[in-house]
């Protein structure tokens, strides 16, 4: 058995995953981080999406050149962390997007194992300090680096982000199976872009077609943590690099994230 890495000072490690791209997983991750922070917690985000590391961009952080000083290195087993995380809005941030330039890509076809090793090594080498929650934003689906993180990182729970569409739910169920097989606690499902509230009449409209009779068996035991509305305020906050939960934490749209945060904390504390 491969030994787990140790993240000193980090109380809870939560991975945020999705079965497919385009469901707003990173947007949910960033806003949940602010919601946890607003609830009084110290929070960090590790952007493990090597194929589309967008956490820095959503927080207004840009890198034009590849980092020369903090690339993941082959180090001795017990070497201490040495990479200082970036601080933004009092969040501690590290991302593959801070190691490579915005116009560069990592080619997983050359060495899939190398992708997983890069992510795990970078996570281990960051000086996170004392954190209540470390959220890990993953690439869509299941593969590398997901498998490497599950194998080598002590994970306290997984949150699956999906939209209400049947195909998105099906893919979410497929992704969830990997975590279930690894005995990672399933904290629940976040249904993003769940409905639209008419600004004129206040009526709720479900934009995506869903089948009331169909539900993937893999999601049968995964509780629904909350439903996030499809609203311009959320996308506009991301586009301005000032996410909703930071810019408008008392807005009606923010209530969904605060509700999900409350349920997450209850479930984690109940498992202690």
CATH homologous superfamily heading = P-loop containing nucleotide triphosphate hydrolases
CATH class: Alpha Beta
- Biggest sheet strand order reads 3-4-2-5-1-6-7-10
The tally of strands reads 10
The percent range for helix content is 25-40%
For the CA atoms, what is the radius of gyration?
Answer: 18 Å
- Give the name of the CATH architecture: 3-Layer(aba) Sandwich
Rounded mean pLDDT is 82
CATH topology call: Rossmann fold
Question: What's the shape?
Answer: globular
Order of helices and strands: EHEHEEHEHEHEEEEHHH
**Class of secondary structure makeup:** alpha/beta
Describe this structure in words.
- This protein has 272 residues and is α/β, with parallel strands linked by helices.
- It has a single domain, classed as Rossmann fold (3-Layer(aba) Sandwich).
- The longest helix has 16 residues.
- The mean pLDDT is 82.
Summarize the structure.
By secondary structure, this protein is α/β, with parallel strands linked by helices. The protein has helices at 25-38, 55-58, 112-125, 146-152, 166-181, 232-239, 244-247, 255-270, and strands spanning 10-18, 43-47, 86-88, 91-95, 131-137, 157-162, 186-191, 196-197, 204-205, 224-227. The protein contains eight helices and ten strands.
Topology:
Elements: E1 10-18, H1 25-38, E2 43-47, H2 55-58, E3 86-88, E4 91-95, H3 112-125, E5 131-137, H4 146-152, E6 157-162, H5 166-181, E7 186-191, E8 196-197, E9 204-205, E10 224-227, H6 232-239, H7 244-247, H8 255-270
Parallel strand pairs: 1-5, 1-6, 2-4, 2-5, 6-7, 7-10
Antiparallel strand pairs: 3-4, 8-9
């Amino acid at each position: 058995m491969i030994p787990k890495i140790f993240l000193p000072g980090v109380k809870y490690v939560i991975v945020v995953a999705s079965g497919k791209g385009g469901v707003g997983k990173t947007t949910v991750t960033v806003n949940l981080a602010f919601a946890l922070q607003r609830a009084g917690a110290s929070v960090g985000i590790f952007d493990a999406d090597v194929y589309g590391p967008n956490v820095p961009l959503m927080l207004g952080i840009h890198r034009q050149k590849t980092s020369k000083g903090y690339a993941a290195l082959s180090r001795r087993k017990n070497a201490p962390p040495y990479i200082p995380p970036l601080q933004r809005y009092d969040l501690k941030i590290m991302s593959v997007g801070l190691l490579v330039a915005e116009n560069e890509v990592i080619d997983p076809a050359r060495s899939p194992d190398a992708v997983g090793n890069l992510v795990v090594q970078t996570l281990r080498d960051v000086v996170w300090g004392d954190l209540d929650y470390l959220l890990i934003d993953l690439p869509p689906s299941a593969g590398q680096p997901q498998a490497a993180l599950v194998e080598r990182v002590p994970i306290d729970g997984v949150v699956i982000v999906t939209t209400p569409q049947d195909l998105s739910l099906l893919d979410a169920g497929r992704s969830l199976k990997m975590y279930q097989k690894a005995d990672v606690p399933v904290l629940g499902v976040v249904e993003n872009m769940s409905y639209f509230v008419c600004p004129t009449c206040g009526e709720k409209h479900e934009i995506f077609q869903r089948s009331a009779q169909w539900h993937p068996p893999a999601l049968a035991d995964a509780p629904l943590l909350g439903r996030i509305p499809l609203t311009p305020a959320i996308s506009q906050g991301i586009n301005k690099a000032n996410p909703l939960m930071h810019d408008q934490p008392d807005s009606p749209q923010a209530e969904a994230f605060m509700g999900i945060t409350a349920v997450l904390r209850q479930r984690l504390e109940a498992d202690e």
